[in-house]
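Continuing the series of single-chain predictions for the mutant panel. This is the parent chain; the variants come on the following pages.
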Amino acid sequence: MTAPASRPHYGRVFATFFRNSLVREMAFRGNFLIEVLTNAFWFASQLVFFTLIFGNVESMNGWTRYEYFAFMATNMIVNTVMEAFFMPNCANFSELIRTGNLDFALLKPIDTQFLISFEKLDLGALCHVLLPLSLLGYSLHQLGWPVTVLSVVTYVGLVLLGIAFFYSLMIVLASTSVWLGRNQGLYEFWFYITVFARYPRNIYGGSPAGLVLQMIFSYVIPILLMITVPAEVVVGKLLQPSWIMLVTVAGAVLGLILSRRFFYYALKSYRSASS
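Parent structure:
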């Protein structure tokens, strides 16, 4: 009688993925350096652009210069985590299907979604998170807003929920590769969907078309809430739990549940390379 297979230790598996990614990055140090410099240049260009805008206006729909910089830093933190942890893997999912290498992932004694989501990490992109964190700290210092333990915990929790929701959206987009075969439009479609989250939610309220976008991307696909709500918390615009915060939490949790079901539903339609 054979002993039952032990359950994998996911922390050790993730550490192995991280170590392999680090070795891969150090093997191509020139590419790593170029990626870091490119990200730094993009960050600087965004900062200069909005500095010029706020040099001519006091605020944009109620967001002052440093409040908006805190919002921009929040958006960059979420996007950096997405680009570092999930974008490389989700973009590679279609290649696994096309080449038949998904067979090997399905045979491994580990959760398939975990393996697909974390196998490759972009550490060059992850280094970029230091810049928005610095901008966030500087903005809060300029605002003179007292940072409390409760506000920090609430902010971090909401940012993690935002990352969870955007991951859910990305894994759903990647899962469509099972039927499409090769989903090269993942990057482009991801950009078109998430571009709306680059600006605070109330900015879209200035016209009928803006109100429609605000409603759709707040309550149907709540990408606006996932960035705006934590930013409002950290700058003091949202001082206590409210219904909009509950919608944010519910949207992230529901997104995780539905995306996991959709991922495994898609796998049922997968035909292995040997079939």
